[in-house]
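Sample intake sheet
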Amino acid sequence: MEVRLYDTTLRDGSQAEDVSFSLEDKLRITQKLDELGIHYIEGGWPASNPKDLNYFREVRGLPLKRSKVVAFGSTCRKGYHPSRDRNIRGLLEAGTDVVTIFGKSWDVHPLVALEVSLEDNLELIKKSVGYLKRKGKEVIYDAEHFFDGFKSNRDYALATIRAAEEAGADTIVLCDTNGGTLPHELLQIIREVKKVIKKPLGIHCHNDSGVAVANTLLAVMEGVVHVQGTINGYGERCGNADLCTIIPNLELKMGVRCLPDGSLRKLREVSRFVSELANLSPDKRQPYVGESAFAHKAGVHVSAVLKSPHTYEHIDPSLVGNARRVLISDLSGESNVLAKAGELGIDLKKGDPRTRKILQQLKHLEFEGYQFEAAEGSFELLIKKELGLHKRFFELLGFRVIVSKESEGEESLSEATIRVRVGDKVEHTAALGNGPVNALDNALRKALEKFYPELGEVELLDYKVRVLETTKGTAATTRVLIESSDGTSKWGTVGVSENIIEASWRALVDSIDYKLLKEEEKGRR
């Protein structure tokens, strides 16, 4: 069995809160989806806005290898022949071989939303589908609100999709537009539909009840061969069915082909690419492609996974382009430390006194409030310091941070002065910043860059503060987590103190130390 995948990230996905794709974004995502091997890419609604119309003009220049670009729109309006309807004309102007139109299946919608009779609605469906077929288009008919319509008025809902089938629609897609249908309901309704519809069926689910993926998989089990969804499940309200979960479930768990050979390994890359262009942080806990999907923290789990991965992994993570991660925390055992040391190319053995010493130091720091799960840069430094594999790149002689405010209406001004020693040379400098931590960061870099110009590549990407003892108010211990990048790689570092500036300083020093350590190791290779 093979299923055709229909991606609607560029249309339905862009309707998600906080998501907005530029024209260039849409073109780049189209290329990425084509590389993955998606059958249909819904590019947008050409009659709704100039950006989508421009997209269909520009996309013609892309050398797509597998995907068919689809223009989306609605049935024509009452009183208009399809040839004179602006929406239908927009579909034709898009110039795609495939078009998708949606029509009303729920009896309340024609009467309330369109203000037409139920009979007129059936006629609009027939006229629109028939006209587009006569124009030589492959027509996908989306039966909007079909499941709600079926529950409200079974006979009328079935009449709407029969009208589309009789008019020549190539695929009939059953849409759970409000996302309120539960799996047992969906199964029963699809079985009823199959008794009267002979054309290929499709499924389009929203996730308002948290079952969009489950409903989609059940639909395929019932013989549905056309699956609609979005990358990362982006979409209106709670989102659409997530293709990043559906695809590997179909391929790896159900034996249903939907991508070309080898393409499944690109899945995580595509997921991250789309989230980057959507300007949204990837969901760490997203099945299959999330950063935490194959992350192991408990010592017992790590020990077992190192012996036999399937003990705590349902698939080989490389099949979807992901990788196993071993997390370091106070729950860690020797297996965690050995696994992380192995990743760093450090030869440690179980029972080695050095391994136990590192583990004891780790647990002591975690007790103080440190957390190394997202600060692997700091953890690598901890290991190498304990093993004598780390040298001191600079010595702090002192710093001072001043925050001043001239008047109530003025912004605060932050200034940091710092003295450091590198070898036998002392550097004393000062810098301003948007706040005390930024000023300290700027001053430290300024002092060190003449000795280590490579620090000019380092950028602070994220700065998080966590109050660990909320009952102590402003005297509470704080944990500062910093994410840094040099344009090639990213690393996290952590600092803990009752003084937020001191905690920030420790995380900043680790960030710079880590970069200098990596540059030194690179020079030795």
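Comment: The domain at 4-277 is CATH 3.20.20.70 (TIM Barrel). The chain has a mean pLDDT of 91.
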